[in-house]
Design goal:
6 helices, Rossmann fold, globular, seven-stranded mixed beta sheet, alpha/beta, 232 residues
Length: 232
């Protein structure tokens, strides 16, 4: 059966973060390249600090998704940026505000038709109080009270990613050119696990224990994991 997948991807560097835009681009590239062949993917909606992020524009795009009146569809909502206790910096949204945004324009009697996958790379991610059940999945970078770390990664310049990252330094080595870029520790490893091991290994992969030990952040899964296993 063909599955209808939509995605809203937000990277919000401001202020004083370096990798959130790249986190968003990383997820954008993952969705474009690694979705299951039976997926009908609409072009991911990507919003980063390269231009002013307008929440009304996002609302209008989400409303268009719901207005298609599909019987069964999934929205992947990704956010990377600052997070606080039950709140993200983007438009100062609470957990309830995030749900209201994703449900914007959705008729009450159609709510069971829409499945939601929330992926958050931000501090205090677990504190957002997002619902988790058969229709919702939460993939969170850390527990309440924990910080979500950034690091620096490297990629070959002549790669075939759909969108290129905001680079910080170019390196030439062994007749190849690479560049360094800032990236969230959670997002970088989440994407690599999906690419290298498959989504079914996302929960028990050993790398999360290393990250918990080194970066003091704990990967959290709540809700229906099958929602994402069916599409990657």
């Amino acid at each position: 059966m063909i599955k209808n997948i939509f995605s809203v991807i937000i990277g919000n560097n401001r202020p004083n973060l370096n990798g959130s835009n790249n986190d968003a681009i990383k997820i954008y590239n993952l969705i474009y390249k690694y979705l299951n062949i039976n997926i009908k993917i609409q072009k991911p909606l990507l919003y980063t600090d390269d231009k002013i992020i307008n929440i009304n524009e996002i609302k209008n795009e989400i409303k268009k998704i719901h207005s298609l009146n599909l019987d069964d569809y999934t929205i992947i909502f990704f956010y990377a940026g600052h997070g606080y206790n039950n709140r993200i910096r983007f438009c100062n949204l609470s957990g309830k505000g995030i749900i209201d945004l994703v449900n914007y324009g959705l008729d009450e009697d159609k709510k069971e038709n829409c499945k939601r996958i929330f992926i958050f790379d931000c501090c205090h991610a677990e504190s957002l109080k997002l619902p988790f059940n058969e229709n919702n999945l939460l993939l969170l970078s850390c527990k309440r009270g924990q910080m979500s770390s950034e690091s620096v990664a490297e990629i070959e310049i002549n790669n075939n990613e759909k969108k290129q990252y905001n680079k910080i330094k170019v390196i030439n080595r062994n007749n190849k050119s690479y560049y360094n870029y800032h990236i969230g520790v959670f997002t970088f490893n989440f994407v690599n696990i999906v690419k290298d091991f498959g989504i079914t290994n996302i929960k028990n992969n050993y790398i999360w224990k290393d990250i918990e030990f080194i970066s003091k952040q704990t990967f959290i899964i709540k809700g229906n994991i099958k929602l994402i296993e069916d599409i990657f």
